[in-house]
Amino acid sequence: MKVVQKCPFLLGSILIVLIQIIAGCSAFNSFQREGELTLEPLEEQVTVLRDEKGMPYIYAQNIDDLMFAQGFVTAQDRLFLMELTRLFAEGRISELAGEKARKLDTRMRTIGFLRNAKKHAKILSSEDKRFFQQYVKGVNTFIKTRKEAYPLEFKLAGIEPGLWTIEDSLAILYFMGWNSAANLKSEVVTQMLVEKLGTEKAEEIFPLNINPDDPDDIGPDDIKGGGLSSLQQPFNLNLISDKFIASFFEDRQLEIGSNNWAVAPDFSPNGKPVVANDPHLKSSILPGPWYPCGLITPDLRAVGVIIPGLPGMIIGRTDHFAIGATNAYGDAQDLYVETIDPANPDH
């Protein structure tokens, strides 16, 4: 690999150095990938190195500059995705899609991601608030000073990005959590079954949950023999396909659950532990839901991924530990049954 020659591009007082390793600029973006930019909010010099795939490694002398640079560089690469996610999460997608998206906006505003984000922003600790503020400042510096470098998608959509806020980041955080939950439809279906069949009958056709690592759970002999003593639950296997359930104990055991696992140092090629995880977010779409980056200061080195619009890192590794995440499909939503007052349809 060779480093492309830096091109001086001075605009102010403190420098942020952008170095592109091997040519790899996007055909749809005209923003600067090499040279020097002067960005006044920075306290000291920041260097951004990009690998052959365009992934940025941000080197800063302190956390404030690191978060600012992360916001700036993320806006360079993912500003349109950030804008779309923000509009969707905050119930504002009608600004882009028009009347067709009105019902979707009503739903998002009813759930209230932005409403709760505004409450959350007010109670952040001073340290957390500064963390977000520096990131937001970096995003907004790009928006305000690099209008000519906005991604082509903005021109095609006929919109411009608005300035970023801490509330926007928190709203996206809430939305991602809500979007990763998987029990909403199942709870509605369960309630309908209970109302239609009664609790006892409904329990007989509830899904059968199996943990292959738990010796107390159901096994092949239980299925073939029809026994359910180990489950201690009123399931009726006659209402579920025995063949389907038995398949989990034949050639599909590894398909149960999620792909998160660890390898001990004794079993890895380099003698160090390995952590793998499956966050259940599609990696096949472009741009993907994750934004990979490296965050480096004299006291910290972290490499991993984050959701565009959020500072820091969700999944990744440092010199001392690795962090993985998977989707537990837990009960993350509370549902309420509401009845219209016949005497007052507005209540």
Write a structural description.
The chain has helices at 63-89, 94-97, 102-111, 113-122, 126-145, 152-157, 166-180, 184-197, 199-204, 220-225, 242-247, and strands at residues 15-20, 35-38, 46-50, 56-59, 261-263, 274-276, 291-297, 300-306, 315-317, 322-323. The protein is globular. With 347 residues, the chain is α+β, with helices and mostly antiparallel strands. The N and C termini lie far apart (67 Å). Residues 1-14, 19-28, 222-242 and 244-249 have low confidence and may be disordered.
Helix content: 25-40%
Biggest sheet strand line-up? 2-1-3-4-7-8-9-10
The SSE order reads EEEEHHHHHHHHHHHEEEEEE
- Give the low-pLDDT segments: 1-14, 19-28, 222-242, 244-249
Class computed from helices, strands and strand pairing: alpha+beta
Number of strands: 10
Largest sheet: 8 strands, mixed
| Strand content range | 5-15%
Q: N- to C-terminal separation?
A: 67 Å
- Categorize the overall geometry: globular
- Total number of helical segments? 11
| Rounded radius of gyration (Å) | 25 Å
How confident overall, as mean pLDDT?
79
